[in-house]
UniProtKB/TrEMBL annotation, chain B:
<feature type="transmembrane region" description="Helical">
    <location>
        <begin position="133"/>
        <end position="160"/>
    </location>
</feature>
<keyword id="KW-0813">Transport</keyword>
<keyword id="KW-1003">Cell membrane</keyword>
<dbReference type="Pfam" id="PF00528">
    <property type="entry name" value="BPD_transp_1"/>
</dbReference>
<keyword id="KW-1133">Transmembrane helix</keyword>
<dbReference type="InterPro" id="IPR045621">
    <property type="entry name" value="BPD_transp_1_N"/>
</dbReference>
<keyword id="KW-0472">Membrane</keyword>
<protein>
    <submittedName>
        <fullName>ABC transporter permease subunit</fullName>
    </submittedName>
</protein>
<feature type="transmembrane region" description="Helical">
    <location>
        <begin position="100"/>
        <end position="121"/>
    </location>
</feature>
<dbReference type="GO" id="GO:0055085">
    <property type="term" value="P:transmembrane transport"/>
</dbReference>
<feature type="transmembrane region" description="Helical">
    <location>
        <begin position="241"/>
        <end position="270"/>
    </location>
</feature>
<feature type="transmembrane region" description="Helical">
    <location>
        <begin position="290"/>
        <end position="314"/>
    </location>
</feature>
<dbReference type="Pfam" id="PF19300">
    <property type="entry name" value="BPD_transp_1_N"/>
</dbReference>
<dbReference type="InterPro" id="IPR000515">
    <property type="entry name" value="MetI-like"/>
</dbReference>
<dbReference type="GO" id="GO:0005886">
    <property type="term" value="C:plasma membrane"/>
</dbReference>
<feature type="domain" description="ABC transmembrane type-1">
    <location>
        <begin position="94"/>
        <end position="311"/>
    </location>
</feature>
<dbReference type="InterPro" id="IPR035906">
    <property type="entry name" value="MetI-like_sf"/>
</dbReference>
Amino acid sequence: MRRLIPDCATGGSKMATAISTGAVSPFAQFWHDFRRNKVAVVALGVVALIVFVAIFAALIVPQDPYDLKSLVLRDARRPPGYVGRDGMLHLLGTDSQGRDLLSAIVYGLRISLQMGLMAGAIAFAIGAVVGCSAAYIGGRLEALIMRIVDLQLSFPAILLAFVVAAILGQGKQQLILALVFAQYAYFVRTAHGAAAAERQKDYVQAALSVPMGGWFVITRHILPNALPPLIVVATVQVASAISLEATLSFLGVGLPATEPSLGMLIANGFQYLMSGRYWIAIYPGVALIILIMAINLVGDQIRDQLNPRLRK
Amino acid sequence: MASFIIRRFAQAMVVLLVMSLLVFAGVYVIGNPIDVLISPDATQAIRQQVIEQYGFDLPIWQQYLHFLQRLLTGDLGSSFVFNMPVATLIAQKLPATLELTLIAVLFASAVGIPLGIYAGYRPDNIAARVIMAASILGFSVPTFWIGLMLIMVFAVQFGILPAGGRGETRALFGVPFSFLTLDGWSHLILPALNLSLFKMSMMCRLAASGTREVMLTDTIKFARAAGIAERTILRRHVLKLISIPLVTVFGLELGSTLAFALVTETIFSWPGLGKLIVDSITSLDRPVMVAYLMLVSALFVVINLCVDLAYAALDPRLRHGGQ
């Protein structure tokens, strides 16, 4: 709290009084710090915009890209700005099946985001439960779990995801499973590190001496204190899950053709790159990079704010 | 030390055993092994013969033992697509991948480390900021996307470099390599650059943060007080002090670059292991998949073993830590 006050001289006196009277929630304080990094604020805005567009995709896009009836094959592979036979403007051009690329990208973003968030949420849950429990239980089981996790971390995530996806075959569930398998170890490691530190502290010892149930102590005391580092890992891992998913789909072991994510759109456009029809592969890629970069920038800022070593 | 080596070695063996179990479970139990190992157009007689040969009528644990036995004797089966022993096939493809990865990692170090040292030496300089921003970009942008960009710019727009293949090769000890011919280099440069960009960003960031820390130490103050030129300080002292983490990363990254090579090889049609495995998955050539998985896991186990042993040699605390 104290460190906020000097900053507020420039930030606004209202905030300063609010903070000195202690009337500010931790969230408001966090937002106040966050706002000072303009790049991160812009990135957050971009993420919010993409999430909004992905949720309301059907209302925004000019064409339902998967309604085969609305596709005109004669309009295939047209450059950006092309006006179709039915008078529709294709702002980013059309793909090999005459699909409006902008619409396809919005739907692709939706699938990519969905995959990244689902995989991230499941890996987060597994990591939090396993990591905190391991730290709480201790002994041989803890050693065994952490040994397995360390072993997995020594393999590159892309290889693990690729192998699992290849063995399980195409499909949404299979792909999420592959992404979770490739990423849960990061969450377990982080949760375990934070929880093991909390485990030693007096308040946990006190809670245990009462005696309270183990599960109660884990969920009420250890887990909330292990959350900040987990949230940081989560943002980074969601971005990397989206990137992984795109890579797997590009390689042909990801989603089936009926659910084209950004990676598959890029893969479809790849063959036309050589003949100079760059837009089919480029624009989905630009969307993908903007999404990943924005999430990473937001994650960077959150990490800096939650890192006690950088606090003065 | 001897007991540490033995313990660590035994661990590595256990890991390999577990990996073989997982691969066995993945390929032989989830999928139908008969469909996996026998090509669909085989006659009934051949089917029966192969079933007996591989013992698919046996209980599952016996099948696993047979699988292990075949692995240990180096019998990895035959590829359906190429119709040749998988071991031979892999031996053919391995040099191309090794060549590509090695050049990529060397390139990443040769460019990334000097840039990183510079960025850490003058952190407020505009050039340093550009370097650090570019390295974030290098982290965030997926490898396959950069590959596409490189092809679009250098192969399609300017038409100065080929977009795929290995080009002309020359034999060294009977193994064909591209880096021995000019045409080979022109084919090598784009995929190697593509593969190295991620590592380069990482090396650069590591070197930058290491340099920033080292520059604040007494070593540097005394070196400056002694009147040694800045250039010499950077080369002699800073580089030496930041090299320990860099060497570790170099070793570990060699392994992960091999894994990343499957993306780059697919994009640039580089005829190496990565392309082989991606192709064999598309064509359901499962004996090749099994062999690749076992090979890569063995490779990682060996790399980790070497890193641990090197650490133990450097840091005496680790040798006795586990006891």
